[in-house]
Design brief:
Helix content: 40-55%
Number of helices: 10
Shape: globular
Order of helices and strands: HHHHHHHEEEHEEHEEHE
Number of domains: 3
CATH topology of the largest domain: DNA polymerase, domain 1
CATH class of the largest domain: Mainly Alpha
Strand order of the largest sheet: 1-2-3
CATH architecture of the largest domain: Orthogonal Bundle
Distance between the termini: 46 Å
Largest sheet: 3 strands, antiparallel
Length: 309
């Protein structure tokens, strides 16, 4: 049934990442039903949904945001069951979703002067790459995921435009100003790679990997380089043969030990890098493990381990 549900989501225009996360959440719900009631129901029942919400909140200790992510998946599953004639009743209601109170340490307004001061500090630091990325963010308005997937053949500095591929593989033209053109030209002068792609770390991370969660962006290459082989981790046998990866930086080399893997949507919480406490980070990790394709021998690890070579 999950295969049919995934086809329904694709037909609704959901991205591949979103479809994968929704199916993983439904699979988790069905596993809970089987462990609790001894079977996987073919319909959704209101009483089961309410018990599952209580289970997520009180037993698993999920945050309101995580509970709502799972409820969104169940609501879409409910819609599909009704449209496909398998069910007639709506059992996931609007008031089931938990209210989230966003907290800000210090609300503030970023002015153009602040942006220019930040760009100037990056320029003086000598990192033309970081300077180009921040300039692109500040003056083009593209999303972080769109910047991560940007390729050289999508950039036309002469015409001063970028072909951006956004959610659902929808394309649009973004016109760029002199600041972006000049910063990108300076960065491209010092690149020592002939590839149109490059790995780079999220700008919110610490460059020494000292943060709790470091995000590294790359591309799915058809020629077998970069992140092309990551999809192999959907199978346990591939993980068993490749439990580690080599990560090399200008100043060091690391061995990364994998313990879980899953596809994350661009709107998911996989991209969170700031955590208020170790407890919040532990909750985030637990949620990540619940979405895994494969799980290695380090099931009780609190993070992805890394060690210098």
């Amino acid at each position: 049934m999950l295969k049919l549900f995934s086809l329904y989501l694709h037909a609704m225009g959901k991205s591949h990442g979103t479809v994968s996360v929704y199916c993983q959440n439904i699979s988790q719900y069905l596993r809970w039903c089987e462990e609790t009631f001894g079977e996987r129901p073919t319909q959704l029942y209101r009483a089961n949904v309410l018990e599952y919400i209580s289970y997520m909140r009180n037993i698993k200790g999920y945050s309101p945001k995580t509970v709502n992510h799972h409820l969104s998946s169940l609501r879409s599953y409910n819609d599909w069951l009704i449209e496909s004639g398998r069910q007639t009743e709506t059992v996931v209601l609007k008031n089931d979703f938990m209210k989230i109170q966003l907290q800000y340490a210090s609300p503030s307004t970023v002015t153009k002067k602040d942006v220019e001061a930040f760009r100037q500090r990056l320029l003086e630091s000598g990192s033309k790459r970081d300077y180009a990325i921040v300039t692109l963010f500040a003056y083009s308005g593209i999303r972080r995921s769109e910047c991560a997937n940007l390729k050289l053949d999508q950039v036309d500095l002469t015409a001063r435009e970028i072909r951006v591929i956004g959610k659902g593989d929808k394309q649009r033209l973004v016109y760029i100003n002199d600041k972006i053109v000049y910063s990108m030209r300076e960065y491209l002068k010092e690149r020592n790679s002939e590839s149109p792609y490059c790995l780079f770390m999220d700008c919110h991370n610490q460059s020494d990997f000292s943060g709790r969660h470091t995000i590294i962006y790359g591309h799915h290459m058809d020629n077998g380089t970069m992140f092309q082989n990551l999809m192999g981790y959907k199978g346990q046998s591939f993980y068993d043969e490749h439990p580690t990866a080599r990560l090399c930086t200008p100043g060091n080399a690391y061995t990364v030990e994998f313990f879980a893997g899953y596809v994350a949507g661009v709107d998911g919480d996989a991209w969170q890098v700031d955590f208020a406490s170790d407890a919040e980070f532990g909750e985030w990790l637990e949620d990540a493990k619940n979405k895994f394709w494969v799980l290695g021998p380090h099931q009780k690890m609190s993070c992805i381990r890394r060690r210098s070579a």
